[in-house]
Design brief:
single chain, 344 residues, alpha+beta, Immunoglobulin-like, 2 domains, six-stranded antiparallel beta sheet, five-stranded mixed beta sheet, 15 strands
Amino acid sequence: MSHLCGANKFGSYGFDTERSLLVVPVRQASSLYLAAGENLSVELTTQGIATVTESPVSKQEQATAPGLTPWERAVPLRRLTITGKAPGSTQLNAYLPDRRPWIAPLDIQVVTDPGYRQAGGGGTLAPKLAQEIASLSFRDALIRVAKDQMNSKVGRSPTGGDGIYGLDAGVNWCGGFVHWCYVMVGSVTGKTNPFGKNVHTLASPQKAIGWALHNPDKAQLVRFEGTDPYGWSWPEAGKAAVADKVGLKQSFVDISSANPVQKGDVCLVRKNLNPKDGWKHVCMVLDPPDSSGTFTTIDGNQTGAFRPGLGVSNDCIGTNSHDGNEKLEDGKSYAFVFLTLTTI
């Protein structure tokens, strides 16, 4: 059936196919293809918020454009370019000659953030997203904010997240991205962000483990055992640095109904042979492990320091699937450790 799809060759930034949503900044544009819609009339419901223009699609473009399915390469394509004019909301639809709507309506949100994000720099949230987040659970809101970033120009460029998620430019920012999502959701829902304002609680897997071991009232480490690999060494909220507690140690805890892994929890990735060697990556759980152990994550900085064995990606924020049963070569330690939150 006729539908909209990403014209990725032209930068379909801000396009969320799951929600049929396009986020576009004022005075910026994003292009989409209308597949099998040669006899449809395209219209916006509200004038003054955005404009839509059409341009032809050559056979060569259709044959080589990235991301299209075989069916989309075979049917007529029309390229639609949506340009933001003023902050606000409008909707794009495509009608048959008898005025029947023939595609899923596209919600268009025009924002001021130049990164094609509803959750933008400086902790600002577009009013529509703030309203949506306020109606969601904390965990659902985390995923909503993370996907907003993933679909943005920031998330769809190789280095877009560098220096914008609470850590200095040039610093591996995977954990900073997860922490930033928690801060944004906490600021809207009024619920306490268990990690607080200090980005260093999640700046590395080692720091995240240290934080969890010192905050057993807020979190549980699952599939980890041992002592703090980092050391609790940074001050919080004006307090003096807290020395590591003598004998503080985590006994092994597995995934269970008493200790579940849920969406929005934190995944810590370790791929080295020696469990005492460096950890690799911090990401957010999207879909918890199923009966086979398969789970998915949303990963920031996946074109930077680490992308877990899944090849090259042009997007610095993306989703990845993993085998939760994977162990290190020692056959004992799990490659994926979970930091599960008990207060959200």
